[in-house]
Amino acid sequence: MPTESEPLRCAGALVVDDDGRIFFQRRSPHRKLFPNTWDIVGGHLEPGETVEEALLREVTEETGWHVSLVLGLVGEYTYTGTDGIDRIETDFLVRVDGDLSRPRLEAGKHTEFRWLTEAETGVLDEHREPGDGVIREIAEDGFRALRLLGL
């Protein structure tokens, strides 16, 4: 467990489809952190794991897909969870191999998924606390990065 001065590290994937949409999944209402909210694929680094290794592992664990290409860095985000623990999350735009219409959502952790366009990011504010716009910020940064990459 990290000390107060040592935040948890997380890796996140903004999975992109051929239409330039980004994949989001709804967290289960039973989750301790951010219950029933929309989220990107990702999670905490395991001991000894790099950000890149966690990225690949989390995509497969949460969707059944495999990262085929890391398109680029979206950004690094610092936040404090409702558990009071500080986190630093590094997020990437990725392409994956697999049936994009049929992700294998992690049982008990996620209940549904959506592919969103940039115009649809308002849905990401559902069930968020007032002032908690981090997932929408990440999505907007992801779409901005897609434009910069010409995708």
Automatic annotation (TrEMBL):
Its cofactor is Mg(2+). PROSITE patterns: NUDIX (PS51462), NUDIX_BOX (PS00893). Keywords: Hydrolase, Magnesium. The keyword Transferase does not apply. It comes from the Bacteria. Residues 6-139 form the Nudix hydrolase domain. PANTHER family: GDP-MANNOSE MANNOSYL HYDROLASE (PTHR43046). Belongs to the Nudix hydrolase family. This is NUDIX domain-containing protein.
